[in-house]
Fold this protein.
Amino acid sequence: MEENGAVRRTDDGTAAVTSVDETLRARASRVVPGGMYGHLNAAELPRVFPQFYVSGEGCRILDVDGNEYIDFMCSWGPIVLGHNHPAVEAAVAAETLRGVCLNGPGEVLVELAELLTAEVTHAEWAMFGKNGTDATNMGLRIARAATGHSKVLIARRAYHGIGTWSLPPGSDGVTEADRADTIYFEYNDLDSLDAAIAEAGDDIAAVIVTPIRHEVHRDLDLATPEFAAGVRSRCDATGAQLMIDDIRCGFRMDLAGSWEGLGIRPDLTAYSKALANGHPLAALVGSEHLREAAGRITATGSFWFAAPPMAAAIATIQTLKAEDGIARMAASGLKFQQGLRDQAKSHGFEVSVTGPPQLPFMSFAADASEEKAFAWTSECAARGVYLHPFHNWFLNAAHDEPAIDDALARTDAAFAALRTGFGSD
Ligand code: PMP
């Protein structure tokens, strides 16, 4: 079998045209477990979704076969200003020229911590890592160090990274002991939170909650004001530390904090994804009373203090503010959401479009097997619009009106194709 071109020879010696993506998948399958792994593994998506990419610009990405997509996944969140953003890349390039990994951080660590504590209302200090898991792990450890307690309460099916305490029951390679201090409640359900608190007894360290309910394979729910207030008051009553896992919504909903609009402030907030527009950086910010405990935990990593991603984060936050990025994403997302509702109706499909407009999602009614979701998102991908069948989508600040109009013209054609295959609802 030839591996370096667009031609694959089958076992009987005939030539078959193959894509660069297929060729790379075949090579990867020999040297990477499963050929790919993790949340960007395209194996769980129909074949029309590529696995390998070469570039991105604004709200568009290019796969290894030269197909362009209007990108509504934004690398599953990190790209908040647009791919290859000039201000961010210039800041990274300047910092990189000075050195990528020195014996200590650059001035940018202090500047970024000052910026985050100025922007995020409850934050009085900031610590950094590389991935969201670093931030959620650090946050839990600080809560335990501060309270002297062990138990952590999280919503069932919520994702908080790959810390073993937060992985679902039955996860391969995770022991019951790893998860022994984790207790579950249902999102937006204070009775179930009360039951979890009762189970924790006097050993409760933290309640960790995402600002919206955004688990996979289901519509998105905003937190109800009663739930947010109820979580806060129960933490106050029990001494549990409230950490908002803002890794997916942070810097898309509200720079001051994603529950700020509900008037609720946590004790800790975890960020990664959009913090540095795609550059590897996570942050944990916290309230004053946790400063001392935060200084006591073991928290470090070989690459955690590299300056270029911190320069990227400063440029990202400053640009988001200067260009009113969150409001622009919200306006474009609203137009996209309404456009999809109108199109679905005109093609005779019953859909539910949910989520904040910056992180929208659409599902089909009576589609438990997700057959329609897979078929429609495949039709979209074939027409150059990258959406996901069962994970929430993301907008970035480069999704301007012409891009949304362009995307909607293609999604309309995808609905028409779906009707041919499935008929209307
Ligand atoms: N929490 C939430 C809510 C997330 O969405 C993610 C990433 N999908 C994480 C934690 C983990 O972040 P990272 O992938 O940067 O480790």
User: Anything to note?
Assistant: The chain has eleven helices and 17 strands. The longest strand covers residues 204-209. The pocket of 4'-deoxy-4'-aminopyridoxal-5'-phosphate is lined by residues 131-133, 136, 159-161, 210, 245, 247-248, 272-273 (CB under 6 Å). The two ends are 45 Å apart (CA to CA).
